[in-house]
Hints:
It catalyses: 8 isopentenyl diphosphate + (2E,6E)-farnesyl diphosphate = di-trans,octa-cis-undecaprenyl diphosphate + 8 diphosphate. Its EC number is 2.5.1.31. This is Ditrans,polycis-undecaprenyl-diphosphate synthase ((2E,6E)-farnesyl-diphosphate specific). The chain is an alpha/beta fold. Helices cover 42% and strands 15% of the residues. The chain contains 9 helices and 8 strands. It has helices at residues 34-40, 45-65, 85-101, 103-108, 124-137, 153-169, 180-186, 232-243, 253-260; strands spanning 8-9, 15-16, 26-30, 70-77, 112-116, 144-151, 197-200, 219-222. The strands form 2 sheets. Strands 5-6-4-3-7-8 form a 6-stranded parallel beta sheet, sandwiched between helices. A two-stranded antiparallel sheet has the order 1-2. Helix 1 crosses helix 2, helix 2 runs parallel beside helix 3 (85-101) and helix 3 (85-101) packs parallel to helix 5. It is globular, with a radius of gyration of 20 Å.
Amino acid sequence: MTSPQLPQEQPGGTTLSRSEEALPSHVAIIMDGNNRWARARGLSGVRGHRAGVETVRAVIERAAERGIKTLSLFAFSSENWKRPAAEVNALMELFLMALKREVKKLNERNIRLSIIGEQRGFSHAIQKHIQRAEGLTAGNTGMHLVIAANYGGQWDIARAARQLAEQVAAGELTPDAIDEARLDAAMNTEQVPPVDLCIRTSGEQRLSNFMLWQLAYAELHFSPLLWPDFDGAAFDKALDDFCLRRRRFGMTDEQIEAQGA
Length: 261
């Protein structure tokens, strides 16, 4: 484990607790605990999801402030369709509302938005607003915000494998040409870099089929907080935890130390 870097005084008097180089480039979050948060307060699950939307806003703002280049949020998994119809309908309404109301703010902050997942499962209205939102923010150069909706890691890998198999069958590709880079380029997350830090809230310690390929070498941080209680301070704590990790990528400590010499 490496020692934490000392705070550095920046121009204008701003003190950073970690160097910019030490921060993760891509942070992915499994947002969990909305229903439990609501039940603990005698509220409906919908109220929990609405409270979760407020946390999404706060975390996006904090991530942009900290200079995170890519922030991915697991909003709705391909397995979430199994939930009660009333809850699914409420989630779709919240998703549509966010696409209508929040995108302008993202654009004003120079944030680029991408939605990954099987979009054909959504209503025509949601699909239309996804296209509008991505088009409006496509030219932005700030943080890249990725929302995973109707997404599953196994679906993503299987989809890419099927696409490559079709190219082989058509004589456009040979099996020997298929490697990690080609599979990665065929995935729905092709514009998304590997995840450096994955955060899951609510105390659960599993990946729940989220970005399985991209999480291959990610550092994992499990927060006991339910998602509506997660805030900027909790996000900073996860970043601080990441900065204390030593990432080896299959190498030894001695090799890592030699690279830093």
